[in-house]
Amino acid sequence: MSAFTDTLDRVFDRLLFLSPPPASTEVSLNDEVSDEEAEAVPATPGERAFSFSLFISATRCTLQYVLLPVVLPLIGLTTDISLPLVIVLDLLAITMLVRSLRYFWQTRHPRRFDMLPLSSVILFIILFSLGFDLWQLLT
After folding, report:
1. Is 108 left (phi over 0), alpha (psi -120 to 50) or beta?
2. Which of 103, 84, 94 is nearest to 123 (CA)?
3. Of 74, 119, 120, 121, which has the most beta carbons under 10 Å away?
4. Calpha distance 118→54 (Å, rounded)
C-alpha cells in the first residue's frame, strides 16, 4: 500500500468514526474470475447497502419530481404528506449511503476508492435536497 492510500484510509476512518482494522481484513478480488463465477458470488453487505441507497435515492427522486407534483394533481389528489415523506426518504438514503461507506472502509474493500466519487456526488445532492425540503417545511 502506498503512503497516500494509508493517509486516505486514516482520514476516512476518522470521518466515518471507525477504528483502524487489523492489517489482514482487506477483501481480495480475483481479477481472473469468469462471468459465471462472478454471478454466483453474493454481494457483500456494503454492496447491498450501496445498491439499496441508490434505490432509495431513485425512489425519492421519482416521488419528489414526478409522482407528487405531477401525477397526483392530475388525478385530483393532493396531500400534505409529500414533503415529510420525501424528507424521510432523504434521511434513509443518507443512512444507507454512510452505512455502505463504513463497510467499505472497515473491510478495506479494494474498490472503496472507486465508490467514493459516486457516493460523494450522491450524498451532496441528497443533502442539498434535504436542506431545501427542510427550508420549505419551516417556511
Report:
1. left
2. 94
3. 119
4. 10
Q: Quick one: cell of 22?
A: 487489523
Distance CA 94, CA 100 (A): 10
Task: Give yes or no for residue 115 having a pLDDT over 60.
Answer: yes
Contact 122/97 with Cβ under 8 angstroms? yes
Sign of the Cα pseudo-torsion (107, 109, 114, 115, in order): negative
Residue with cell 453487505: 45
Number of helices (H), then strands (E), in the chain: 6, 0
Q: 60: which 3 cell numbers? A: 425519492
Residue 61: C-alpha distances to residues 9, 21, 111, 120 (Å): 32, 36, 27, 17
